[in-house]
């Protein structure tokens, strides 16, 4: 199987879906001629033309809103927000509109849009090019939020998102774009939205996380393995709505749970994961539910000293894992 | 006899009579809603009164078999023209399960009916503007020749979504008609506190599109403006901004007391220009309407409204648990 | 002490602060001549004039953004969002701007704005006039979110919010406006933002909630008391950042915890409350952490059948309490 | 000798020479930032090159002791005029603790310095526009006579916040100067794909304010337009929209490769109009600048830039744990 990068998996998924279905199109800032500021849409403008790979005016609410209109008509828009941080002007369109179209029309209309955005830090992006924004949306029924960790998952889940008949927010970790490579079949395949994935089987402690932190957890698990500590790693993949069954199963399996997010801690995705566990399998637990996250500051600073302090990394993950294992 | 102004617009006597009938039906439905509200039978009304001429004039200028419309909450006249029935509107007023707009999930005035290309709407104002642009974009991509029509109030033209949507349509030369129903108030806030420009249509040039302001009490003037805009759109010449100026004859909604911010004199003054009266007079002066016909028309309409009310009042609510449905596709 | 309604407490707090400090002013839609669609600013236009009680154009991002500008200059704006549901267009200004001004300027600038909005259901408001929106913001360090339950708390906390040197979102339950009355001193007093409040002492089970649900909990507690079940009720009052100590203390006290919100369940405020408990006092628990919330649907429908089904009410609360007590 | 155009504007020879010096300092700082970036010493640059004339021309037309400014990320010329120093800009480029803008928390170009009334800015474009309006509103409430000046790109003028902010200022007749630095591109997207109007200033009428378009390579033309706008504002006549047209001479930022969407010919063509050259020539032709003075000026500037670079490079970063500070007031 070919090994490709995380970002190439994004491009491949979009290209294949555009080839497969003429209703699929891309819109966003600089997605056309330039191929995106990260090059996620590289080559699509040349292949599909400016009518299907649209460089829009600089206005996120319109990017989302025009996409939503097209989706209601029956198209399959893929809207790009240049950075997840810049999705904020589009919140009204996403929460008031996309999320509620099927529901408010009693199933008469639907809104099959995908909104992609690069998120996450560790790239000297400072306060406004580093944020994790999923928690803002992860309380809005009607939305699905996908945050894949591997190129394989990216391709399968992005295709699933494009074919999904409901709105999907698809957040891609920008540091993973070129850092993370993996085997990706050339074939067409989709992966189920809403299902978490066990990325490593283990017996002693359970780590539940998503995105780039999955890799930190797997690296740390490898280290702990040589000390005889066996780590179970569950990758949420879809962070809203959560895969409750998989979470309960993974937590109950070892009775010791570490939850990890790169986002700031209070009110994050892992808070809900914790609540699900505390509600459903409390008596299976042998330790408090531990959380490792960014500090509760508005966003990560630019200076390398402070950025590094903010970011979750393999060392912090390893330390937390060992602490939990010893509990 | 006054000048016949509809012939030159290509409108037959039957057509203008039909227009009048829809205006009247809109008014009577709205009046009924108020009665139902004041007698405690329905919780909420938001009115079309004073804007029927603009709504019906515009909707008649569109292709009712092909064009897409994204009306705002006052557009009873628009949706009636596009095929929604009095009964359906009453079902919505009573929030009953059969309401085609939302199955009783949304307040009245939140229109949506796919079979008639009435695109589902929400409460936050002006979000429909970019949607209209997206539908037009989709139509263009698919080589269709429909136009997309959307409306909003003058206060709402201050929302960012109006600006962003209009600009997108301008840049991509999309066949969208943006119609601002300027009724001089946004709830209690008069137009001088909403906009500093003389006309809302002054904004059009900033999006590279023509902008026109017409008398919203004159259905023929609105018809002409919207027809021209639709023709432009179909010719591939892009969007148009049409502003119709009239007056909101009722309080903002059944929850509002307009006497806390305007005078009854001002309202009375505006009522002298009510299109239900003035367009009726025009039809009579042109020999298209007479007292008998008018009475007959009114009787028919009242029958329709009564039947619709009775049906809707007796129709069942959606089951409580049904609220769990349609969050996502099944 | 005079007994006044929840909404009168809002008006009183604003009036007194405007009398006290000429930098305090109000801006929003219909807040002036009309005195607000709920009459929360009733009489202020007459008393302070149109320069200090500003009827703005219909544009929430500008209401927030203009307020933020004035706040940075040194004023004390109180911006009203007509309904919490309509705060969405202002999310960018609130999250990207207000929340981050002190932090991003390294303490050079600050942003003492209060953004008020009526939230909550049970008033036939349908999908867009009933929502609880706090979870959208309750993950943004730099913001404080206050959601009082009683007229006494309203007055003390709104005054504190106006005097606070950081941005505060102040959400008022619209059904509480005229339904809830209580004693409110005529004097000037402030209550601490960030502190939860024990509204009833009890020994058997702990209920943690906020807003209108506090009253449902107190009503139900009264009923249970006659059956010898003693309920401890903690009112969060500030839902972000949460009062961790008070939460831990209240949970540990009885070992049985019921969390209640009117919001939809997944990703709500009570998820974080649960996570705090599961992280800090898991072994003090004698029962799973129970959550009572709205169903995970986009928002509550208009038809009375469905609206009623959606809403938390005293019966549902009582039932959940009894279930927990018997656990 | 060419016509002396600055006298009639009330600008002395010293003043225009000072303007030129600030333009040149801006350019040299920017060039140094690119060198530092390309040699791996700083992670990011976003440039003022091509816009110095507009920035400095505008800033000189303001009252540097009283007016408030809300610059956007390219406004090196504006903030230098308002009192920020080369050293401070370099500290920001290197993200060092002493950076007065943010203590190294924000990327360079995110200006803010309270003592000079430079209002803290963020990355999401155009959010500063309503802030400028709010500051002007506050000034009006307090009876002050300062004006508020804010800038943004032409692409950014499509954001809702531009529309909402401009409209608010128009309705309340606030002394705000909205200056759009039109450099023909928004990253890769050319102006034709951003706006359908001929000039960004065409949007002014929609907000009831005057709009003017001036040559952004001519600091005197910009000075005149902004001076008039400031005077209007101080006279209580409300806001103005000024558009300065020039060209972005560098890639969008150090992360961009502009050759993927425009040609080097086009850039070379634009460089012939570079104000650093043309305004220098104007000064020479008017006998205000000569080769000696120019050399001296350049040497001074390079010394300043070198010292600033050395200082900033050697300055300490903020302590890691300090990131926990200033979330809320202590
Ligand atoms: C985003 C948003 N903010 C506030 C409201 C509350 N609201 C409903 S209608 C209205 C006034 C609308 O005025 P206008 O646009 O002139 O339309 P009209 O009602 O006069 O037809 C307001 C403020 C809303 N629905 N959406
Ligand atoms: C809300 C938002 N969306 C996207 C971006 C990313 N971005 C930064 S600058 C820029 C282009 C700005 O173009 P223009 O307004 O013309 O200013 P210029 O850079 O040309 O001076 C974009 C898209 C952003 N900063 N903010
Ligand atoms: Mg109006
Ligand atoms: Mg530009």
Automatic annotation (TrEMBL), chains A, C:
Its cofactor is thiamine diphosphate. The keyword RNA-binding does not apply. Keywords: Oxidoreductase, Thiamine pyrophosphate. Residues 4-179 form the Transketolase-like pyrimidine-binding domain. Its EC number is 1.2.4.4. The keyword Membrane does not apply. It is an enzyme of class 1 (oxidoreductase). One of its GO terms (molecular function) is branched-chain 2-oxo acid dehydrogenase activity. It comes from the Bacteria. PANTHER family: PYRUVATE DEHYDROGENASE E1 COMPONENT BETA SUBUNIT (PTHR43257), PYRUVATE DEHYDROGENASE E1 COMPONENT SUBUNIT BETA (PTHR43257:SF2). NCBIfam families: PRK09212.1. This is 2-oxoisovalerate dehydrogenase E1 component beta subunit.
Automatic annotation (TrEMBL), chains B, D:
Keywords: Oxidoreductase, Thiamine pyrophosphate. Gene3D superfamilies: 3.40.50.970. Pfam families: E1_dh (PF00676). It catalyses: N(6)-[(R)-lipoyl]-L-lysyl-[protein] + 3-methyl-2-oxobutanoate + H(+) = N(6)-[(R)-S(8)-2-methylpropanoyldihydrolipoyl]-L-lysyl-[protein] + CO2. Its cofactor is thiamine diphosphate. This is 2-oxoisovalerate dehydrogenase subunit alpha. Residues 20-320 form the Dehydrogenase E1 component domain. The branched-chain alpha-keto dehydrogenase complex catalyzes the overall conversion of alpha-keto acids to acyl-CoA and CO(2). It contains multiple copies of three enzymatic components: branched-chain alpha-keto acid decarboxylase (E1), lipoamide acyltransferase (E2) and lipoamide dehydrogenase (E3). GO terms for molecular function: branched-chain 2-oxo acid dehydrogenase activity. Its EC number is 1.2.4.4. It comes from Peribacillus huizhouensis. It is an enzyme of class 1 (oxidoreductase). It comes from the Bacteria. Belongs to the BCKDHA family. PANTHER family: 2-OXOISOVALERATE DEHYDROGENASE SUBUNIT ALPHA, MITOCHONDRIAL.
